[in-house]
Amino acid sequence: MGHSHSHAEEAPLTRPQMRRRKALRRRAVVLLSWILVPLAVLTAVAMLFMWPNADTGKAPATNPYSAAPGASIVTGSVQRTISEDCSLNAGGLAGTSCFIAYTAVEGSADVPVVVSPDIEASRPVRAGDKISYLDLSKLPGITGADNNGAKYVFMDFVRTFPMGLLALVYAVVVVAVARWRGLRAMVGLGGAFAVLAWFILPALAQGQPPLLVALVGSSAIMFGVLYFAHGFSVRTSTALLGTLFGLGVTAGLAAWSVDAAALTGTTGHNAYQLANLTDGMSLSGMILCGLVISGLGVLNDVTITQSSAVWELHELAPHTSARELFTSAMRIGRDHIASTVYTIAFAYAGSALPVLLMVSLFDQPLLTALTGAELAEEIVHILVGSIGLVLAIPVTTAVAVAVVKATGKSPSVPPVHREAADSKVLDPA
């Protein structure tokens, strides 16, 4: 039986069959184009219409220390650290211990930088660290005769080198493993952040409708990232269609849940400052936009994987019926759903760990803690993102099955020969 099946796979197509397959392939491509091209045009037109105007909105916020004449922010390298009497450098009470980091700046002597106790308790300043500090030595109140004020105050660590090194290692690992496709994915990621920085954030700050900003910006990101990283193909178009469907579901759920759950966006310590710095931006609208954007990466992952799974299953068994192909692909999809739901939940739990810890220390019922302002936003993030993700998988699978049956071709090389060819690619020797 296996022998006859192999001959069926290798049997050449007749001319009418080839013509019919080409016609079906063209029909599927045209159908996908009829759907995706208008969506792409609509996305581009909406972006142009809502593009932030540089002449509107409030002036950019200035450095909070620039209003103090004579104050400056300096970067230096820590030479040594010591605990000493506060009255010597910080103008504090005698007998109180202060953490001092003697910091060198090129062309000047070491200066005693006062480090706050919470920094020392969390991640102590060490010799060799590069830090930035506030130089108040030229202010009149500091340079008076008594000379008791804190002249140099720690601001932050300089993280350029370790973060740059991590980025370099990340790029090397991605290119080494994924090669050209990995490089394209990283360039696409750069384009996605460009859309975020130049369109989504300024549009939100200028009071544009958050739901439209999220939908348009996210759609533009997905069009660019998917086609750039995976190439222009029917397989990629199928995944993009499933992604856009999931994006629409997520946006609709986000709009409803933000209003129904009364998410105000005022729980963060920067909320009111952000509202004052922007031109009428809604804090709840910012949450809505964040709900849509936060699910893009995982949504893109599951749709492209599911679309690829359908094609690979079809290549292995090209004569499988559409129903059997859908059922087989959904077995993979269900495993992907289970693992990805955990991924979303733990990703949000990790980012909200300080809030979770703080809430756990409160003496209150569990239900009150879960539905309180501190945790409600994170839980809604998890639920909305997971629903959009789960619904996108069967839709992507169904579209992929329909398209692959119209455009997919039987393997030109029998499976045994293909495995041998693959082994030669992996082991040229």
The number of helical segments is 15
As laid out across the biggest beta sheet, the strand order is 3-2-1-4-5
Query: Using only CA atoms, what is the Rg?
Result: 29 Å
Mean pLDDT: 77
Number of domains: 2
Structure write-up:
The protein is 65% helix and 9% strand. The protein has 2 domains: 2-55 and 178-426, no CATH class; 72-158, OB fold (Dihydrolipoamide Acetyltransferase, E2P) (Beta Barrel). The protein has helices at 2-10, 15-50, 86-89, 117-122, 160-205, 210-230, 234-260, 271-277, 283-294, 296-316, 322-351, 353-360, 366-371, 373-407, 415-426, and strands at 72-85, 97-104, 111-115, 130-135, 152-157. It is elongated and about 90 Å long. The model is unreliable at 1-10, 143-148 and 409-429 (pLDDT under 50). It is built from 15 helices and 5 strands. It is of the alpha+beta class and 429 residues long. Strands 3-2-1-4-5 form a 5-stranded antiparallel beta sheet.
Name the descriptors:
alpha+beta; OB fold (Dihydrolipoamide Acetyltransferase, E2P); 2 domains; five-stranded antiparallel sheet; 15 helices; elongated; disordered N terminus; disordered C terminus
Short synopsis of the structure:
This is YibE/F family protein. The chain has 429 residues and is of the alpha+beta class. Helix content is 65%, strand content 9%.
Element layout with pairings:
Blueprint: H1 2-10, H2 15-50, E1 72-85, H3 86-89, E2 97-104, E3 111-115, H4 117-122, E4 130-135, E5 152-157, H5 160-205, H6 210-230, H7 234-260, H8 271-277, H9 283-294, H10 296-316, H11 322-351, H12 353-360, H13 366-371, H14 373-407, H15 415-426
Antiparallel strand pairs: 1-2, 1-4, 2-3, 4-5
Helix pairs in contact: 2-6, 2-7, 5-6, 6-7, 6-9, 7-9, 7-10, 7-14, 9-14, 10-11, 10-14, 11-14
